[in-house]
Known about the structure:
The chain has 287 residues and is an alpha/beta fold. The chain contains eleven helices and nine strands. It folds into two domains: 70 residues, Helicase, Ruva Protein, domain 3, CATH 1.10.8; 197 residues, Rossmann fold (3-Layer(aba) Sandwich).
Amino acid sequence: MNTVGEWLAHSSRLLAEAARTEHDRESAELESSLLTAHVTGRSRASQFAFPETELSRDQLHSLQQLVQRRCDGEPLAYLTGEREFWSLPLSLAAGALIPRPDTELLVELALERLPKLPAGDIIELGTGSGAIALALAQEVSDRPITAIERHDAALQIAQHNIRQFGQGRVQLIQASWLDCIAAESAALILSNPPYLASDDPHLPTLHFEPQTALVSGSSGLEDIEQIIEASCRAGKPGCLLLLEHGQEQGASVRSLLDDYNFEQVQTCRDLSGHERVSLGYRQERVR
Length: 287
Ligand SMILES: C[S@@+](CC[C@H](N)C(=O)[O-])C[C@H]1O[C@@H](n2cnc3c(N)ncnc32)[C@H](O)[C@@H]1O
């Protein structure tokens, strides 16, 4: 098994056999090729055009290790150190959540509504890899953008990506939610916070990702409530609050937004039709 073509056939078979889901099984060939590109530097097109290319002993050794880790369930993004979000090739490592395609909805909703918001800052809470703040920085040039992250490991990854793609427009702050933000300074607050309950049955399948990015107390709603409450202070009148959440949490999040007197409360669905992002406008002055 010395050539690229032989390796692709062999590793695709291994990945398909180890796949835990239908989606992983269908992605086996693609993943095999992406790992090969990561190690050899050869594009997927070049791999298929020149399958007779010889792999060096070191390349083969690295590839065997990576495929074994992938067969053991480690996410591809942590193995290649990269994940695309909003067309940005973000660097990634195990300290930060892997950005999900569904989260692009949060960015789309923010961009649709930004022109009608009062003047003021954009604050992204729990930035992780920096994905959401950086997507906004590609599209918005007339408002300060602040990304907040509490945990050191994620902060380092965000810092790297913000240097790379922030265009000097994203300020990164280590803090808990809105603790460091001045009263009535934000026009838009958005977050994809941790929202799984501590006994959520999906947690074992997510064990490679940081639990601090996933779990929010026994209800899954503790951080969402803290953010809603803090937004009453940090948001300007008319400030938009956008929150990503689990597909079964829409009614609970709307109810929390109502409790804190947010207006025009609604929930938007993702491409699969699941309730995914709830929003409301802060109309009143600080209570
Ligand atoms: C679900 S992840 C979202 C990461 C990224 N925004 C994304 O969408 O891919 C939640 C993030 O919130 C951060 N976090 C958790 N508690 C926090 C807190 N009290 N203050 C600020 N960030 C927090 C976690 O470290 C994690 O990076």
